[in-house]
């Protein structure tokens, strides 16, 4: 009799424990992500990415990953992006490691055919302290390798000419941009990536941007962007033919 009673008590105790566990699991709400220190601004395009449908069967989606040059481009000429189904993921002020952090969310997950990577100027400008050209290249290489791993064709941009930064005139930008572009070109050729040259059509005799094509020596005006559109479209066509 005592054994039967003990068995019943154990059984009922187990049932109560199971009910308590179930109640606890129901009362536990999923923890919200905390973006109070969103250094790479992952939240900026989060909603747009969620609303963006997967590419159509024959769509050749192109994602532009960069900083203010790309962000302001869509503001100045939105029709260019909508007409071509280009996806702009530029964020003003960002340096190359921030682009790398965003690469999965703002590029890979969008399943593009091509990514256009424009990086390095804000690093040179010292927006978050000194970043060497080699470190910039490390970040560009990491992005390109991630893209290739996910069968995304890579276009790497030679940066626009900059003589000096209005917000940091002590930085002598012109030669640093030239040196960075040389490294980009060498790497892209070695890896058979498509090179998109924004430097040559915009440069003046001081290795800065031509005055009639820029608003501040760093960012193009609409006329400058129109020139960039021509070379961009040519690079996209070339990249689509590239096996890599």
Explain this structure.
The protein is of the alpha/beta class and 244 residues long. The chain has a single domain (46-241), classed as SGNH hydrolase (Rossmann fold, 3-Layer(aba) Sandwich), CATH 3.40.50.1110. It contains 9 helices and 5 strands. Strands 2-1-3-4-5 form a 5-stranded parallel sheet, sandwiched between helices. Strand 4, helix 8 and strand 5 (194-197) form a beta-alpha-beta unit. Helix 3 (68-76) crosses helix 4 (78-84) and helix 5 (96-106) runs parallel beside helix 7.
What can be said about this structure in brief?
49% of the residues lie in helices and 10% in strands.
Strands, helices and their partners?
Blueprint: H1 2-27, H2 46-51, E1 62-66, H3 68-76, H4 78-84, E2 86-90, H5 96-106, E3 114-117, H6 121-124, H7 133-149, E4 153-158, H8 173-191, E5 194-197, H9 222-241
